[in-house]
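Z., the sequence and structure:
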Amino acid sequence: MTIERIECHVFRAPIAKPVQAAVGHFGNRPAVFLRVWASDGAWGWGEVFCNFPPVGAEHRGRLARDVVAPMAVGAPSDDPASTWRLLTARVRRMAIQCGEPGPMAQVVAAIDQALWDMRARRAGLPLWRVLAAAAGPTGMTADGRIRLYASGIGPDDVAQTALAKQAEGYTAFKFKVGFDPARDLANFRDIRDALGPEARIMVDANQAWEPGVAAERLRALESFRPYWVEEPVAADESLADWQALGRGTPLALAAGENIRGQADFEAAIDNGHLRFVQPDVGKWGGISGCMAVARYAQLAGLTFCPHWLGGGIGLAASMHLRAAMGPAGMVEVDANPNPLRESLWTLPAVADEEGWIRLPDAAGIGVDVELPALEAYRVAF
């Protein structure tokens, strides 16, 4: 059974209010969805990261359609990890030549997601069960449950947004920092006052600070007791700078969405500065690569919390991957409106007061994309 063809669908959904982060903002919600078809008629869905830059969705759509898809046709469809390694090798030199290893890896990551979805659909099982079996001892405690947290909050109306998500059953919350220092602290004061002293609150700086400045910013945050501080400095700062930052603060550091490659993940984990590891299934590795990172992190005593801030396909894949590794960590769910998430599927209701949900028993990722419902958002590429 081999890959026969790959459909590529590019969408942009309008939103009333831009999504803001210290690294930039976007005024609509883009998505690149790939459907991979196999020679036996089986199929599966994957999603390519495309939030940045503003032209990222159309460009990645062209890369998928015109560059990577022809390389994938004829590759095995029933062994996702082997095909991920094969495609990674096939795109390597072109990625170097055009200076785009990130976008190339993102397209390959989506194909990998689709092949895992396909594998689970063939088996008639939810993806988390298939992944738990592949994960070995790590997956023995998997029971289909995951804990959610609301992310992407701020920098405006942080307390109001957090309270609204709390009313929906969320028990953990992440808001944006990396703006004016006074604004960051005022926002933390507001959200802490609103949610209470024991609420689990994380912050995400989106690589905003230089290492020296980051140390000062972390000291200012200590009294608010964030559960973690995400990407306080650029992902490619030296391991020595990351290590010094981690040793100089009692706060837990988190990162991973902008690390690419197993070797770089292992170096970061071994460096000792992280307590939470956050690979992104749409940015690098797909499910195959991110599961290997998750195993390595968990063996090192770190907590795996997959990163995701896109459409509904990548979110579902992230949830199944986290569930397959056992009931630990958390999965982020963007608090901002996104029709390309909301139109695809409805999250299961929060099952208990600690914010856990149980994934449905539908085959694959549990998402069947109704393309006619998305036609209003389709863009040419």
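The chain has a mean pLDDT of 96. Residues 3-124+370-377 form a domain with the Enolase-like; domain 1 fold (CATH 3.30.390.10).

Let me know what you think.
H.
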